[in-house]
Amino acid sequence: MILDDIIESTKERVEMNKKRHSISQLKEMAFAMPIDQTFPFQKALEKKDMSYILEVKRNSPSKGQIVSHFDFKEIAKEYEMIGADAISVVTEPDYFKGDDDFLKEIKKIVKIPVLRKDFVIDEYMVYEAKLLGADAILLIAGIVDEFTLMRCVNLAYNLGMSAVVEAHSSMQVRKALRVGAKIIGVNNRDLRDFSVDLHNTVELRDMVKDDVIFISESGIRNRKDIEMLEAHHVDGVLIGETMLKSRNKRHTLEVLKGIVEADEN
Predict the structure, then answer these.
(1) Is 215 within 8 Å of 247 (Cβ atoms)?
(2) Mean pLDDT, consecutive 10-residue segments, the chain of 265 residues?
(3) Could you give the CA distance from residue 140 to residue 186 in angstroms, rounded to a whole number?
(4) Residue 126 class from Cβ within 10 Å (0-12 exposed, 13-18 middle, 19+ buried)?
(5) How far is CA 238 from the centre of its chain?
(6) Which end of the chain is more exposed for a tag (fewer CB within 10 A), N or C?
(7) Residue 233 in contact with residue 205, Cβ under 8 Å?
């Protein structure tokens, strides 16, 4: 299963990184940085209307390279210019061909909040995210035990970062709520086989009260998808491939928001 392979490669990556810099070194450096307790990522998603988190991602394990020309800085700057509320940056190197430098460089050139999207299995990676400049970190409920998840959530908060706790099932949503998640992202993609079902968000929506920000991730392609999510009071969406593949990103986002009609062809 691809997910097992990704987790295994992530464990190897973390162990290699720990040999370069110990967790105590990272901890000292991370807590020496400015800690913004206003949580700009969460604040960006608290508006009344749907929030849009647009993703910078080079590859997909199931589809390979998403776009032939991948200029991550150019993409991020365009996302900010067209009205994204936040940017998600995939940093997993082996299966998504991401890079920590993508996030570090993007953070230097945009003013909107940036999320580190990776397969976090250890507190070490939370410290890494802080040092890279992330305003938020993705934590996947399905790949770590509840104790580790809680420690990572609390550590992120203590470092001034928001934590998006990702769930795919009702059991994982309950787990996210137990650890005090303030932002829950339902992944419509099953990471075990990479199949996508947008109704996964709808089925899990009622489990989460309005005081927790509720995001839908993956498989969002058109205005009808957004309308369905709006009807179920989803607070925000994380969109990757639809935006990355678009030749006119401003028009695509305006179509999704319902500002303009989609082209006939």
Answers:
(1) no
(2) 91 97 97 95 95 96 87 98 98 96 98 98 98 98 97 98 97 98 94 82 95 95 96 96 94 94 71
(3) 10
(4) buried
(5) 7
(6) C
(7) yes
